[in-house]
What we know:
The complex is a heterodimer of chains A (324) and B (273). Chain A has helices spanning 3-33, 39-43, 50-59, 66-78, 94-127, 132-145, 149-169, 189-200, 204-220, 223-230, 236-268, 274-283, 287-315, 317-321. Chain A has one domain. Chain A has 324 residues and is mostly helical. In chain B, helix 5 runs antiparallel to helix 6. Chain B has 273 residues and is an all-alpha fold. At the A-B interface, helix 1, helix 6, helix 7, helix 11 and helix 12 of A face helix 1, helix 4, helix 5, helix 10 and helix 12 of B.
Amino acid sequence: MRAVPLILAALRRLAGSAGLLIGASFIIYMTVRLAPGDAVDAISPMGTPPEVKAQLAAEFGLDRDPVTGYFAWLARSAVGDFGESLVFSPGESVMAVALPAFKRTVLLSGLTLLAALVLGLGLAILLGEPGPRQQVLTAPAYVLTAAPSFVVAVLFAQGMNWFVQAFVEQGGYETPPWFPIPIYSESLMPYVFAGFAMLAGDGLFMDWFNTLRAELLSLKQAQFITAVRAKGARTVGHIARNLVVPVLSGFSARLPLVLGSVVIVEYIFTLDGAGYVLLEASRARDFPMVVGLSVLFTATIIVVSLIADLVRALIDPREVARGG
Amino acid sequence: MGGKGQTLALRISGGIVAIVLLLGVIAPFIGYDPVADVDYEAQLLGPSWAHVFGTDGQGRDVAIRLVKGTEAFFLPGLLAAAIAVIGGALAGAVAGYLQGIGRSVVLGGLQLLDTLPRLVFIILLCTIMNPSITLIAGVAGLLFVPAIATVIRRKVEALGSEDYILAHVAHGFSPARILLYHILWLQCRPLLIRQATFVFGYVLFVETALSYLGDYGVQEPSPSWGNMVAQTRDLAGQAPWPWLFPALAIVVTIAAFLSFGNLLARRDEEAIR
């Protein structure tokens, strides 16, 4: 019976993730309580009417001691009630504003990570073993990609402006009628450029490329691959299957980094995503909005790493056997 | 691996790191009054002998502001690196040494810190209390503890079954002595140096990003590389110089810190082997 330990492992991970979520939300809540002076005054924007302040205090349990206040806040947040936005879009519930924006952000980050994976894997296969000649080749690339994402994004935003201008001057580009999706569209362009900026920035791509190449190399030199080759069978399938686990781990491990850089990149390209909303709300001191989004970002990281863990346990029985 | 090219890269990145650190040390002793430096007759000049890197939108000399701007991240960066490395090394060593409940508690705490998205959490902190750059750096250092602890824990676990460590145990050395001296100091130094340079680079990144994105970080008129880039970005089309030099300084410095840490660690790893 393989199913029983698998289910047990899944339950254990689920419990662990729930614990992480509670712990992380507690840290976020306590950060709010750390506000200097009168917490309500500190967190509400200037000129907030007293009744709104009282409502804020009640929402965040600021009129109670930290522990009961936290549980009151948690009980609301657990059902997705993060209160109402104060400044960013006054009166609307935080979730109603944050969720659509957050979907776009997750899509952008996910696709960027995926593109980084495909490109990195392709390059790793093409370049093969690292040698002195490739070090000369990759060193400049390393320096370039070590640039912080917002510097890259600013450069790319400038590049995008020139690019779009050039197209407008030419009278635009017509997608051939047989092609199903529009190749060039002005609403899509910022997302494409933002994706590339995130890909290149913070050394994300270079880092993943190096990991994949090392992984590929150690697989190729593994004894079981030699055995497969000795039998005269094709090795591609075996290598691919063994790459799934490190790729999954890499995906979930790099998500926090990407969710950080997406904030900056969205802001620079003024994309209507969660990162942009977070910064705008933060500048306007729209407090419920910022807290709600912080919880959403953290929850995403926990959920994605839970999913990656479960999939890994499903495809690699050794993970379960190890009891991890 | 490497050879000449690697040595050259190590020298170049090490040189840049040394220059930046040196500037960070001498910057506090340079007298500079950002208000007195304003000169509306010399706005947005290109590089010349009088202003080596040109002037910004208020006619202030870019070169001296670049030098003075190192103050914004030098001490905070050192603080963050110290917190991250000391905290990470100790937590990693303890997690690798302990068994059972104690180990689970330490690992759980580390995992909890690790799930907080760094930049988002720092933005949350900024929204609540408008913290100083020192506090931001301290929090950034704390958020790096789990990453370092993981690396150290793996190393401790791997070394724990080595014969010579077992010999130390049989010899009656205390666990603290073995963990702190024989494992952390003798075996993990390259790892820790690499992580320290990384965290230092991250603080520079956070300071620049925060001043770029919002009204956080170091406030005008005090110069920081981030607020220099932020102020001049709208003028970058007509006057690229005052934007280009701080931006270049940021990119080159972060890249140098990262690659210096990596190369140094690789050389030390080869030496240990």
